Amino acid sequence: MGTTLREIVYDIGGGIQGGGQFKAAQTGGPSGGCIPTEHLDVKMDYEELMKLGSIMGSGGLIVMDENSDMVDVARFFMEFCVDESCGKCVPCRVGTKMMHDLLQKVCENKATQLDIERLEELAVYVKECSLCGLGGSAPNPLLSTLRHFRHEYDTRVQTVIKSENLVHQ
Amino acid sequence: MMALVTIYIDDKKIIANSEKTILEVARENNIEILTMCHLKGLTDVGACRLCMVELEGSPKLFSACTTKVAENMIVTTNSERIKRYQRITTELFFAERNHICAVCVSNGACELQNLGYKVGMEAIRYPHLFPQCDVDTSHPLYVMDQNRCISCSRCIRACAEVEGAYNWDMMGRGYQIRVISDFNTPWGESTTCTSCGKCLQACPTGALWAKSIVQGQQDKHPEFITDLMERRKMKL
Ligand code: SF4
Ligand code: SF4
Ligand code: SF4
Ligand code: FES
To answer: Which segments in chain A show pLDDT lower than 70?
Structure first.
């Protein structure tokens, strides 16, 4: 508790494998959030992680280098939640599936700006309306990648507009 | 222990019995809260999340059908946030399976369709999942069409709690859950169903319907379930 993320990654963990650049760390397992480079010096405890939109959760820590695609990371964790949802309440049962499918669309460069807005709206809705903690935390990876890596979503959407323009010319 | 408490729902001051839920108290006082999985007389499960309300002092939302009233509770049922969430829940219901009202037995007398009108749903902004769903026509009198099912479990509870037959159950998990008869066998081969029709009356959509009716003619009477339970309580 209170050790910085930088110390854990570089001193205790021995740095990034293969000598790559640190990009983000996912804390708290699939319901946690990711922490970008600018917050490498965050002290790992409940309050500080909460401020960055992440959690201690299971205590799990996944470190990613510059080759990681953050939208795909969000999609991957959402897939886990889709599988784990028990199916009793609507926000988690249908909402996680919708968020997953929309994230898939972004990954495939097929999403529009409207899809990103839908994702943002659904994420907060599922978080606030779900019956249990699984649905309550399922949107966390999506919300935190949207917060810290928004440009990765936006560039995907722009690619769509460009390729559409090409078709129309 | 029963006690009287003072609560405020949308600025209306109400003296209420502490054994009751926010939903019961609201309805007794003519304050509308939208519901889908709730059916008076059956145990509440808090599954559809349509009845979410805000409670002052808490950032969380609460399902009105499963939350009991408490002293000095300040409830908001009609904020912009609540209305937005009701619309999303409704759209997710429609997007989850297959609801082509024009060819549905319940067209014109469907709780889900009415809900769409009530929340002012103009379009479904989410991709339809259109899963592969079965239609079970094996029962001599009734049909179960998974395409129209919203997994509210009202049929399951009506069959178990009112009829006592326990024919229905839920199978699977996540978006792949399905209502099943007995051990996922055809309804017509059920060893528990008494063919009483209560599940059909309890069902809010065109998922359960009678073979004797034609398209658009299936009006339902969920109040039968409520009345039965009221009379049972009074030992009439
Ligand atoms: S069940 Fe209701 S909403 Fe669904 S298709 Fe039938 S009438 Fe429409
Ligand atoms: S008809 Fe009656 S006994 Fe048969 S499944 Fe429906 S509620 Fe149960
Ligand atoms: S069959 Fe009807 S009552 Fe049963 S879960 Fe589906 S929609 Fe609800
Ligand atoms: S009516 Fe309250 S959760 Fe469905």
So the answer is: 158-169
